[in-house]
Amino acid sequence: MTANLLLLPGDGIGPEVTVQVRRVIEWLAKNRNVSFTLDEDLVGGASLTKHDTPITDAAMEKAMKADAVLFGAVGGPQWDRNAFDKKPERGLLRLRKDMELFANLRPALCFPALTDASSLKPELVSGLDIMIVRELTGGVYFGEPRGIETLADGSRKAVDTQLYTTEEVRRIARVAFDLARKRKGEVHSAEKSNVMHTGVLWREEVTHVHATEYRELKLQHILADNAAMQLVRNPKQFDVIVTDNLFGDILSDEAAMLTGSLGMLPSASLGAKDAVSGKSRALYEPIHGSAPDIAGQNKANPIAAVLSFAMCLRYSLDDEANAALVESAVSAVLDQGLRTGDIMQPGKQLVSTTQMADAILKALDAKAR
Ligand code: NAD
Which long-range contacts (CB under 8 A, 24 or more apart) does 29-38 make? Predict the structure, then answer.
């Protein structure tokens, strides 16, 4: 099978890290008999500069047809004053909307060599491997009515609406249970059913999906505030956490920071399954932004982008062996003591973006031998 990948490098360090991912893809094509077609297009500020739109219809069409989109990052100070529809981030929002990317997967994984980089005690994070599944297209960020209104007395009132339907909860629950099946078999579902109606619905629908489709797995309900506390108290008790858009926004950032730097953290956003092919649309991206402060200096850590591609191998291409190979190559270079600036520790060797990717390719060579 040939996998059709679309690269959208974007702005700032986006192109610098994406070009290193391209090298890993080309290595796999050459050494592991995996067949890829690679296309590339503009998004964000780069697209605004050339086409006056954060993503063109043509690029959007390619994204819709691709087996997976590999996204870099968008944004930068030169576009900060742009009107709302001319902001670089609108490109990413359109991708999420048109591709119906409703499930955001954020692993929090602690590599042995970086145990000391966490703000928590090493024994709490060593071996940590959590997956946070966040509902991405519903909830309070989108619910209507929403807005700020000026009242008769001149004071103002603001409204946001938290809204979930049966189907929205069931489909994200299925994503979490499917993942748990391939992992330790345990899902924590986080909501606020003690104070929110959407929390009650969420709990009931997740329970229903579990009872009817995934009885062999373990399901635990947890209040979202308790989940936040448990994540810093004893994070290794979790395997998969599924939660709504708002709580997921907060809990996934909290979990991510347990493991150190932004430059290390991948993510996946999965969409609805295509009725004909049965495949899910998908976009993979490092969670960091365009880092204008270090852009163009060959300082960015390419590991988050490389690990995002490993997620693409695992979830879109069903290629666990090569996903694990790429992850083990990353782990090996960290064990060798190589560090980009963001994860630098005393006594380790500071390397550039390119040198880090060179080392990953060398580790791949060594492992494939
Ligand atoms: P950022 O993630 O770009 O950078 C935060 C800090 O982390 C910076 O000091 C940066 O140098 C560092 N950093 C980030 N990634 C790194 C890497 N791979 N290697 C080494 N260091 C790294 O966040 P920010 O500064 O808040 O935002 C900068 C721009 O990025 C803004 O325009 C923002 O809107 C945009 N942004 C885009 C996305 C996205 O494309 N998905 C996400 C977040 C922010």
Answer: 31/364, 31/365, 31/368, 32/322, 32/325, 32/368, 34/3, 34/317, 34/319, 34/322, 35/1, 35/2, 35/3, 36/2, 36/3, 36/4, 36/5, 37/2, 37/3, 37/4, 37/5, 38/5, 38/7
Catalytic positions, please? 141, 192, 225, 249, 253
Q: What's the fold here for domain 1-102+271-369? A: Isopropylmalate Dehydrogenase (3.40.718)
Return averaged pLDDT per consecutive 10 residues of the chain, 369 residues in all. 95 98 97 94 98 98 96 97 93 93 94 86 92 96 94 97 98 96 96 98 98 98 98 96 96 86 92 79 96 98 98 94 96 96 93 98 93
Does any ligand 1 atom lie closer than 6 A to the CB of residue 342?
Answer: yes
Which residue CA neighbors atom 13 of ligand 1 most closely? 291
* Predicted TM-score of the model (pTM): 0.93
User: To test ligand 1's pocket by mutation, which of 43, 290, 340 has the most ligand atoms within 8 angstroms of CB?
Assistant: 290
Domain 1-102+271-369 matches domain 112-130+139-261 at the CATH topology level: yes
CATH fold, domain 112-130+139-261, is: Isopropylmalate Dehydrogenase (3.40.718)
Does 267 sit in the ligand 1 pocket, CB within 6 Å? no
Could you state, in order of their start, the residue ranges of all structural domains in the chain? 1-102+271-369, 112-130+139-261
